Amino acid sequence: MTQRPVRAWHARSTPHRPLVQSARLLAAALFCLAITPCISCTGAFRNPFRPGSPPVPEVLLPGASLADVIAAINANADRLQTLQTTNASITVPGIPGVPLLRGNIAAMRPGRMRIEASAALLGKQVDMGANDDAFWFWTKQNNPPGVYFVRRDQLAQGAAAGLMPIDPQWLLDALGFARLDPAGFHEGPTVTSNGSLEIRSIVQTPRGPVAKLTVVDAKRGVILEQHAYDGQGALIASARTLEHRYDPSVQVAIPQRLELRLVAADLALTIDLGTPALNAALPNPAVWTMPVMPGVPLVDLANAPEGLYPSMGQTFNQTGMYDIPAATVPSASLDSPYGSAVNAMPQGSPPTGTSNAPGWNGAFAPAPQSSGVPPSAVPSYPPGAPVPNGFGASNGYGAPNAYAPGSEPSPYA
Question: 147-151 contacts: CB < 8 A, separation 24 or more?
Fold first, then answer.
């Protein structure tokens, strides 16, 4: 099994203090809905199946195929239509028991979400959401002040590219809405040393292709971790499920507590969803409406010049009132699942004549030529479409182990 190098994850120095007051509040809000489970920074992995709660059914047999695993993931996600909670809390690792923010979270398939969060004695600090047309965020400390927004088809334009490093859809994935497109580009499942399953995918986003690593429980078929990488193989975002919550009435498992990282912001957070209601009617349809606040301008980031507005990481990390000591920012035990930027993902010409071919940007490098995935586990590609160089059956590429030596977490520890 291929071993992965471990790269230390260093905290960055805090940029301009005037800008700081919006990013930590914001990235926490962003990541409340961000991505579902991450790799343990220390190698210790807590049992994600809460003792005493309704058990998550076992739906996968040993040796499950890629199609079986994708079907299990999607069946759980498809049964989840809405989620809402009024008592979510966000804390910072290393400061146990001290809530960073408390607030409301609502999400609805396929791509709507809203978070409104407050800090003790300081009132409302964050309003962030997405509807069918746009994604927006506001923090009390936004500098320049404003409700920043961008239309979904303009996420890669203007200041939006730097301010919003994550596709809003990834935020819903954290809550249990994550699906894998059966017709997409996947490789695996690979069995890790602790018995979990890994699937590697190329996902097309408004910003271009993104590499995604999904770690799945081998019996229950629920997602334990999700990691997103850019075309250079650099980690963009990562999350780990500390506890799952299973609701027998709707037969859905979702993360109850999440440990999340937004790498661009050097930010680590733990989210507890409190007592979420699943598939209940939302009390007010206006929850999906972008807020209009007296005296607060609407700022269209797609038409705003780059550099004028702070990034999401700056906005959150410069809040000042919640500065995270460097010692509380954990080391990353995982960088790229391909070992380095040089071994990021396939390169070469994109498959032609197919409707689901990902957009190649030329930055992907050849994948490592290792074994581990039997030919039967390699995904089938559309008839007549050449398999991309370095990815798939054409070279027997098998996904290497995603964990550094000694860091493999046990999902049942």
Answer: 147/290, 147/291, 147/292, 147/293, 147/296, 147/297, 147/298, 147/299, 148/299, 148/301, 148/309, 149/290, 149/298, 149/299, 149/300, 149/301, 150/300, 150/301, 150/302, 151/302
With vertex at residue 336, the alpha carbon angle to CA 409 and CA 221, rounded to the nearest 5 degrees, is 45
Beta bridge partners of 239: 226, 260
Any domain includes 166: yes
> What's the CATH number where 321 sits?
2.50.20.10
Whether residue 146 is predicted with pLDDT greater than 60 in this model: the reply is yes
CB atoms within 10 A of CB 161: 18
Q: Using a cut of 0.85, tell me whether the model's pTM lies above it.
A: no
Q: Which pLDDT band holds residue 64 (cuts at 50, 70, 90)?
A: very high
Question: In terms of Cα–Cα distance, which of 358, 26, 365, 318 is closest to 209?
Answer: 358
Note down the domain range covering 246.
17-57+74-183+235-349
Residue 354 domain-assigned? no
Residue that the structure tokens 């859809």 belong to: 169
Place of tokens 């960073």: 100
